[in-house]
Amino acid sequence: MQFDSQLHRVPVDLGEHAYDIEVGYGLRNQLAEHLAPWNKGQQWVVLTQQAIFDIYAPVVDSLRAAGFNIHPIIVPGDESAKNIRYAEQVWSEMVELGCDRSSILLALGGGVVGDLGGFVAATYMRGIPFVQIPTTLLAMVDSAIGGKTAVNLAAGKNLVGAIYQPKAVLIDPDFLATLPRRNVISSLAEAVKYGFIRDVSIFETFETRFDDLVALNDEALLSEIIAKSCAIKAAIVSADQFENGERRLLNYGHTIGHAFETLEAYQGLYHGEAVLYGMKCANFISHHKGLLSKADYLRAKAVLDRFELPPLSKMAAEDILKVVAHDKKYINGKLNFIVLDALGNGLVSTDVTADDITASLGEVA
User: Fold this and answer.
1) Would the annotation count 23 as a binding residue?
2) Residue 131 near residue 170 (C-beta atoms within 8 A)
3) This prediction's pTM
4) Is 111 annotated as a binding residue?
5) pLDDT values of the chain reduced to their tens digit, one per residue, 365 residues
6) CB neighbour class for 92 (10 Å; exposed up to 12, middle 13-18, buried from 19)
7) Is 177 a known ligand-binding residue?
8) Distance CA 325, CA 8 (A)
9) How far apart are CA 218 and CA 214, in angstroms?
10) Is 115 annotated as a binding residue?
11) Which residue ranges does the record assign to the 3-dehydroquinate synthase N-terminal domain (predicted)?
């Protein structure tokens, strides 16, 4: 891909914790310039996975050549890395490197690396600065933004974590050139989510330009979708950093999707694939409860059916409901479930029942 000089800057307005999201082709070649204000000679750590480091070691080398005292730490590239055992390994390696409270962690990778890196940064010596450099589309449009950090437990996904904001999110869509098609399909789930819950123009782009989005063949279109997604999430996070209200909308598709992931032991499905299945269930529930019109439901179904998804394993409804019952979105005994009353407008409902969820599973059986 050719370098695109246009840089999208999206502010995340969180007072003393405010930061910028920057989106631009070629940004990875300018990391030393962007990170220079924080470089005071301290120890830096790049948390990444082997497959990413094999391709992008020159990015780390360029920082080292620019005077950064920097060391890579490698973790597994799958969901297994989001485990307290790996967090402890990273903490221990940081101690051996001499990292102190002035050290800075760069999370170079997808959502797993970003979540684990943020959790490590939030907890090491009671908190050190970190910067998100996402390399997957899912991380670029969602998980790298907003400060949610976490590891998984056997009982469920993201049950141990913290809200901890990065110093910056630096997004170079050129990282996506090596992304396999399945990863692209999965990652676009979080982008189309914004079209369902907030901005119908994003949904309409998926209706009309789906093939171009999946092929990643239009730089301007891709940059626009990433920047729009970032802007929506930034606005929601700025208004509700700790998920006491509006931020719950970002869980659209995730409640049942997380249950699918958990029952697949985080192996059979990518996160975005599970969320896409969860969106199908959420839309069925929204229509079944009389909120989403038949016309909008069918439009939504037509778009979601274009996403290539692996088949779900056979799961019993009671097992899905057990996982949902442990979900963080249960508050005061009520499930906060995201439904739609129109395309582009998500709502938090406390009226979704176990029977509703069970009925919706027919959409993905």
Assistant:
1) no
2) yes
3) 0.89
4) yes
5) 333 347 899 999 999 999 999 999 999 999 999 999 999 999 999 999 999 999 999 999 999 999 999 999 999 989 999 999 999 999 999 999 999 999 999 999 999 999 999 999 999 999 999 999 999 999 999 999 999 999 999 888 899 999 999 999 999 999 998 889 999 999 999 999 999 999 999 999 999 999 999 999 999 999 999 999 999 999 999 999 998 889 999 999 999 999 999 999 888 899 999 999 999 999 999 999 999 999 999 999 999 999 999 999 999 999 999 999 987 677 777 899 999 999 999 999 999 999 999 999 999 98
6) exposed
7) yes
8) 40
9) 10
10) yes
11) 73-185
**175 among the known binding-site residues?**
yes
Query: How many Cβ atoms are within 10 Å of 239's Cβ, its own excluded?
Result: 11
Q: Which residues contact 37 (CB under 8 A, 6 or more apart)?
A: none
The pair of three-digit structure tokens given for residue 144, joined into one six-digit string: 């790298």
Cross-strand partners of 348: 338
Active-site annotation, residues: 126, 148, 190, 233, 243, 247, 251, 254, 258, 271
- Quote the tokens at residue 317: 């409804």
Q: What is the sign of the dihedral through the CA atoms of 223, 310, 247 and 285?
A: positive
Structure tokens of 134?
A: 């996402």
Q: Is 323 annotated as a binding residue?
A: no
Question: CA-to-CA distance for 303 and 193, rounded, in angstroms?
Answer: 12
Helix (H), strand (E) at residue 159: strand 156-163
Question: Is 136 assigned to a binding site?
Answer: yes
Q: Enter the DSSP assignment of 289.
A: T
Enumerate the domain spans of the chain.
8-178, 181-215+243-363
CATH no., domain 181-215+243-363: 1.20.1090.10
In residues, how long is the chain? 365
Under CATH, which number does the domain 8-178 receive?
3.40.50.1970
Residue 112 among known ligand-binding residues: yes
Q: What are phi and psi of 136, to 5 degrees?
A: -115, 155
Q: How many helices (H) and strands (E) does the chain have?
A: 13, 13
CA atoms within 13 A on the CB side of 314: 0
- The Cβ-side half-sphere exposure at 38, using a 13 Å CA radius, reads 21
